[in-house]
């Protein structure tokens, strides 16, 4: 009898028995983890909600709402559930550096979108993110330095961020728009969280703020409404970056002394309060 067991979330047993000319094959498979099901169920309504907020209140406010840690928060939360508090805390300095990459992603996208279509623009923006990510590897940077660097870069980028010249007209979106956004964002969240075992705390931290929500909103807005609308939504997303820095700091400080669930509930509330200060800066 030969038995093969593989994949953490997939139970697959193949039994092949040889008895003379008799061949008996049994295939038993499929067990999806509860956490994986939760990810699949949680992410689509979050993406749909942010998209509807953009349509209801405009690109600036919609981008600001989208800048809350709707995606990075669940990624960090699932990493904490699956790998424990110590592993998650060790990802925070890298996550702060990764957040700088997301800031440059938004800046490059806003600049390039006025000259290029969405595909080369998003590729250039991803390159900007990974340049920062690769530059961060092997850097033993303390938490205070990472926080100060993050805030300084974010403030500087907001100061030089391209200003939209026109106000975009509302365009009716295709029926597949929201479902496609939901699928794309959920796919990235599942891949990043499931890969944490192989990536380790450094890369897991850097990729926690990977621009999933940012790129989803930017690409769809760019292709449907143009560069100026994209710049507005990205500026709103960046304004929420200060709250994200506070969110990461909170994970670092609170996770050792509170349960995982209460830590993330408290931090989502705190992030909303901090981001409320920046709402007046929306263009």
Strand content: 5-15%
Structural class: mainly alpha
- Distance between termini? 68 Å
Rg from alpha-carbon coordinates = 21 Å
Q: What string, H for helix and E for strand, traces the elements in order? A: EEHHHHHHHHHHHH
The strand order across the widest sheet is: 1-2
Number of alpha- plus pi-helical segments: 12
> Which stretches are poorly predicted, pLDDT < 50 over at least 5 residues?
1-32
> Would you count the extended β strands for me?
2
Major beta-sheet overview: 2 strands, antiparallel
Number of domains: 2
Helicity range: over 70%
Characterization of this structure:
The protein is mainly alpha-helical and 283 residues long. It has 2 domains: 1-31, no CATH class; 34-281, no CATH class. The chain is built from 12 helices and 2 strands. It has a two-stranded antiparallel sheet with strand order 1-2. Strand 1 (12-19) and strand 2 form a beta hairpin. Helix 1 runs antiparallel to helix 2 (59-66), helix 3 (72-83) packs antiparallel against helix 4 (85-112) and helix 4 packs across helix 5 (118-136). The longest helix is centred in the middle third of the chain and has 28 residues, at 85-112.
TL;DR?
70% of the residues lie in helices and 6% in strands.
Blueprint (SSEs and pairs):
Layout lengths: L11 E8 L2 E8 L4 H24 L1 H8 L5 H12 L1 H28 L5 H19 L6 H18 L16 H18 L1 H12 L4 H14 L1 H13 L1 H14 L5 H19 L5
Antiparallel strand pairs: 1-2
Describe this protein with a few key phrases:
single chain, 283 residues, mainly alpha, 2 domains, two-stranded antiparallel sheet, 12 helices
């Amino acid at each position: 009898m030969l038995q093969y067991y593989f994949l953490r979330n997939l139970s697959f047993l193949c039994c092949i028995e040889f008895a003379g000319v008799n061949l008996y094959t049994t295939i038993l498979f499929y067990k999806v983890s509860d956490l994986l099901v939760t990810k699949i169920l949680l992410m689509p309504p979050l993406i749909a909600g942010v998209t509807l907020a953009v349509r209801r209140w405009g690109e600036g406010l919609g981008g600001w709402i989208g800048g809350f840690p709707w995606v990075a928060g669940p990624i960090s939360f699932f990493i904490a559930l699956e790998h424990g508090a110590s592993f998650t805390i060790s990802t925070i300095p890298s996550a702060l550096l990764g957040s700088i990459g997301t800031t440059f992603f938004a800046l490059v996208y806003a600049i390039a979108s006025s000259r290029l279509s969405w595909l080369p623009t998003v590729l250039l923006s991803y390159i900007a993110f990974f340049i920062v990510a690769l530059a961060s590897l092997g850097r033993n940077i303390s938490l205070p330095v990472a926080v100060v660097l993050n805030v300084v870069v974010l403030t500087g980028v907001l100061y030089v961020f391209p200003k939209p010249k026109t106000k975009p007209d509302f365009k009716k979106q295709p029926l597949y728009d929201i479902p496609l956004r939901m699928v794309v964002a959920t796919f990235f969240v599942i891949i990043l969280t499931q890969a944490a075992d192989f990536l380790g705390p450094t890369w897991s931290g850097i990729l926690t703020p990977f621009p999933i929500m940012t790129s989803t909103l930017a690409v769809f807005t760019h292709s449907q409404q143009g560069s100026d609308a994209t710049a507005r939504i990205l500026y709103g997303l960046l304004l929420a970056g200060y709250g994200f820095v506070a969110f990461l700091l909170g994970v670092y400080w609170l996770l050792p002394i509170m349960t995982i669930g209460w830590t993330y509930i408290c931090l989502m509330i705190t992030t909303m309060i901090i981001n409320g200060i920046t709402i007046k800066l929306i263009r």
